Amino acid sequence: MSLISKKPEALIHIYYTYLSLENHETLLEHYLAKFPADYQDKIRRFRRWEDAQLSLLGRILLYKGVEEIYQQNPHNKILKHTEYNKPYFDDDKIQFNISHSGEIVVCALSDEHELGIDIEIVTDVTLTDFRSQLTENEWEKITLSANKNDSFFEYWAQKEAVIKTHGHGLSIPLTSFEILENKTVIENEDYYLQQLRIDKKYKCYLALKTNNSSITLKKYNTNEIL
After folding, report:
1. CATH top-level class for 10-225?
2. What is the pLDDT tens value at each position of the chain, 226 positions in all?
3. Coil, strand, or helix at residue 161?
4. DSSP for the chain?
5. What is the pTM of this model?
6. How far apart are CA 87 and CA 83, in angstroms?
7. With b meaning 16 or more CB within 10 Å and e meaning fewer, what string describes 46-85?
């Protein structure tokens, strides 16, 4: 009798949280000094409190994940950026990606696979402004859909998640690959997409180079973080 070994599922952890004006100053007081001086300066340069908090919460969620999931001290790790500005931990197998839109911040972590995550709040947009960023088939599906804005952000979140997984950012033209049934191919590599239904006002997608994964989803509120 032959036995077929099943490839183990990749375990992906997703943390997310919402902005809080009420807790903004307390978050700054409690967390900002724990991060490197250049990051503190970056946070202080934001003009809008929302932008400062979105960035800070992304970093907080990342460090929470490293502590809780991998039982490691994130402050001992060196955070660097690739030439395409993708952040990573130096000499560490933990992969992560952060995205924010509107009032939500999401952070994805894995110690097995490269990943990318993107979240987009669905708003009214002038679709023709984005025509050049979509393939003919994608544009046709969007313009023929019952809810064009919803359909557009569906594609946009998927495409952003894929290029974040790829790691070369917008140096990869968005029209150079096409999303079809939650899958696409770039440079002969397959990318698989999974929708994360976090909030009905948003579109959120995770992109991986494997179609065999298990996802854990954990919501924090800022009171818990504090």
Report:
1. alpha beta
2. 444 445 668 899 999 999 999 999 999 999 999 999 999 999 999 999 999 999 999 999 999 999 999 999 999 999 999 999 999 999 889 999 999 999 999 999 999 889 999 999 999 999 999 999 999 999 999 999 999 999 999 999 999 999 999 999 888 999 999 999 999 999 999 999 999 999 999 999 999 999 988 999 999 999 999 8
3. helix
4. ----PPPPPEEEEEEEEE--STTHHHHHHHHGGGS-HHHHHHHHH-SSHHHHHHHHHHHHHHHHHHHHHH---GGGSPEEE-TT--EEETT---EEEEEEETTEEEEEEESSS-EEEEEEE-----GGGGGGGS-HHHHHHHHHSSSHHHHHHHHHHHHHHHHHHHS-GGGS-GGGS---SSEEEETTEEEEEEE--S-TTEEEEEEES-S-EEEEEEE--HHHH-
5. 0.94
6. 10
7. eeeeeebbbbbbbbbbbbbbbeebeeeebeebebeeeeee
DSSP state of 174: G
Task: Give the position of tokens 């009420």.
Answer: 22
- Residue 93 contacts residue 111 (beta carbons within 8 Å): yes
Look at residue 64 and give its three-state secondary structure.
helix
Of residues 45, 77, 71, 83, the one with CA closest to residue 59: 77
| SS3 (DSSP) at 132 | helix
Residue whose structure tokens are 């070369």: 168
Compute the distance between CA of residue 112 and CA of residue 9 in angstroms, rounded to an integer.
10
Q: Which two tokens stand for residue 196?
A: 């994360």
